[in-house]
């Protein structure tokens, strides 16, 4: 059972999301929060698998609430909810450890799928949209030299895998691209996360762009074969 905490300052939206998710046999809404402070406290107490986090809330916004939840070392994943698909707050939340984001007007089925995907940590949520947002902001910034240095810990094959993760490919697709078994890809991804201190694929995509491993607007070419 996947447990969920819904954080939004609008009661009708909270209730609507909670009712939708609770109707699914594998999802359980264990709590609601009306602002960021409540979200942090509830996440600490309830330890949900996923927090649906609104960006703009009173007392403490969703960005700082996300940082506090992730910074506490919990295994809880944060899914950002926003009315804008290009939003400085959303990008900052991804950098701060959020696992992805979803537009509030997305179809109900997308929300349900998003919660399952984020809870599983196996695939990047809405890769085309998330990648577009990351490209939008990394294109404005110089390469992060500290991020680039972190990549020195990776082997050539692990860099190949990280490039393809940044392209939004699932493990099976990466395996086909590199002609290796899906289980081997999964092992590579696990080692990449461990070496770089990453929680999930959303963070991996941010790092891949900020380090210059992937250049905004270009496909993940130039793989280091062998």
Fold blueprint:
Elements: E1 2-7, H1 11-22, E2 27-33, H2 36-46, E3 50-54, H3 62-71, E4 77-82, H4 88-95, E5 100-103, H5 108-120, H6 127-138, H7 145-150, H8 156-166, H9 171-178, H10 182-196, H11 201-210
Parallel strand pairs: 1-2, 1-3, 3-4, 4-5
Helix pairs in contact: 2-3, 3-4, 6-11, 8-10, 8-11, 9-10
Description:
- The structure is a single chain.
- The protein is an alpha/beta fold.
- It has eleven helices and five strands.
- The protein has a five-stranded parallel beta sheet, sandwiched between helices.
- It is globular and about 50 Å long.
- The termini are far apart.
- The mean pLDDT is 85.
Taking pLDDT < 50 over at least 5 consecutive residues as the criterion, the unreliable ranges are: none
**What is the element string, with H for helices and E for strands?**
EHEHEHEHEHHHHHHH
Average predicted local confidence, pLDDT? 85
Biggest sheet architecture: 5 strands, parallel
Tally of distinct domains: 2
CATH architecture of the largest domain: 3-Layer(aba) Sandwich
Shape: globular
CA-CA gap between termini:
41 Å
CATH superfamily caption of the largest domain:
Response regulator
Rounded radius of gyration (Å): 17 Å
Going by helix content, strand content and strand pairing, the class is alpha/beta
